[in-house]
Specification:
71% of the residues lie in helices and 0% in strands. With 178 residues, it is mainly α. It has one domain (2-175): Arp2/3 complex 21 kDa subunit ARPC3 (Orthogonal Bundle), CATH 1.10.1760.
Amino acid sequence: MNQNRHRLVRSLARMARISLIAAVYVVLCIVLQPFSYGAVQVRVSEALTLLPLLTPDAVIAVTIGCFLSNLFSMSPWDMLFGTLATLIAAVMTYRLRKIRTKKGLPLAACVPPVLVNAVIVGAEITYIFMPETASLPVLGFNMLTVGIGEVISVGILGVALVRVIEKTPALKKIFTEW
């Protein structure tokens, strides 16, 4: 009986953690809407794509959060490709969770969200939203602007977020696996 209760509590805690992360992702996109959508974007919510460093629950959470946020873009392509990019990046980030710099920074884990989003979202913007001007220079520009936005969101804000969570016992308890 006690073991069943422990499993239930753990399951509820995981669902709450997933829901919390997904909700924060959506709220950040909506509140910061002018920066969250478009060819040139700094989607602050993408900072959360580093949370798989702390818990595998974040892979599911940021994927759900991205999908729900992309409902506001009113594009089924964005719902598909943007969400797929976030899922791929989150899985890769989780796999890089143990690689840190000498100062403990998770810089290797920043690479997947930046590169995956730059390529997939950059291509989506170019070939789906701008087909009449699609060319390699336009693709390169869109990949560059998405990549720069990801560097800001993930490489600066995401790394800072992870460091704050890791150094704050109450937050660490919420965002780490039991």
